[in-house]
Amino acid sequence: MSYLLEHTVFGFCWWDLPALIVLICVVAAFAVQRHKLKKQEKELEDQLSSIYADETVDM
User: Fold this and answer.
1) 3-class DSSP state of 8
2) Considering Cα of 15, then 16, then 18, then 19, what sign does the dihedral take?
3) Ranges of H-type helices in 2-59
4) Cβ of 8: how many Cβ atoms within 10 Å?
5) Whole-model pTM?
6) Mean pLDDT in each 10-residue stretch from start to end of the chain (59 residues)?
7) Interior angle at CA 35, CA 18 and CA 21, nearest 5
């Protein structure tokens, strides 16, 4: 128990801060990637609907 108390400050290991920074970066990257994919999906759906709209008019 004394080893644990000597190597921690306020109950945190010194590795907790870099791990928290990495976690925040990963969550931010996930959010950005998800936003880009949703935007791309919407654009592709619009293209697909315009293609099908043109085909039904031609028929």
Assistant:
1) coil
2) positive
3) 2-6, 16-58
4) 12
5) 0.63
6) 65 83 98 98 93 71
7) 5
